[in-house]
Amino acid sequence: xxxxxxxxxxxxxxxxxxxxxxxxxxxxxxxxxxxxxxxxxxxxxxxxxxxxxxxxxxxxxxxxxxxxxxxxxxxxxxxxxxxxxxxxxxxxxxxxxxxxxxxxxxxxxxxxxxxxxxxxxxxxxxxxxxxxxxxxxxxxxxxxxxxxxxxxxxxxxxxxxxxxxxxxxxxxxxxxxxxxxxxxxxxxxxxxxxx
Length: 195
Description:
Layout: H1 2-8, H2 30-77, H3 80-98, H4 104-108, H5 112-121, H6 137-140, H7 151-164, E1 173-175, E2 181-183, H8 190-194
Antiparallel strand pairs: 1-2
């Protein structure tokens, strides 16, 4: 009778519940592929920018190393004039390395007070260590047989300038359509334009 009962009982004829297979994390949905692609592109761009920045800043490390060599030479031979010549040349080469080529002639031609003002203008602080401080020794010191200079202060000043300078493009230059810096011609007043 139990077999007959089972035959008539509809619940007994049902099969057990089968759970669906659990979904795996692979293959990824297209949205995750997009997120991964954006992450890879972002990392690639960041690495590219870091490499460019390091390449642009490499002259600083090389100049700092050369400054230390000049200082060691001074400590060994006590030749202040040679140290001042090395420091002056090193600062000029560092400035030329950082500037775009179209501005090289402007910086290379600076001398005297204009050169010291240029050096002061590239420091982030507003103090003027070249025109009003120990940097004044760069005016005549490199050309004297036995110059008087505070080499310790100049060494610190040279390190500071090489580490912290921010070369500014002159205000009378602007970027042209080609991306190169071009001289900016000031606007003519209306009266002269219409004449």
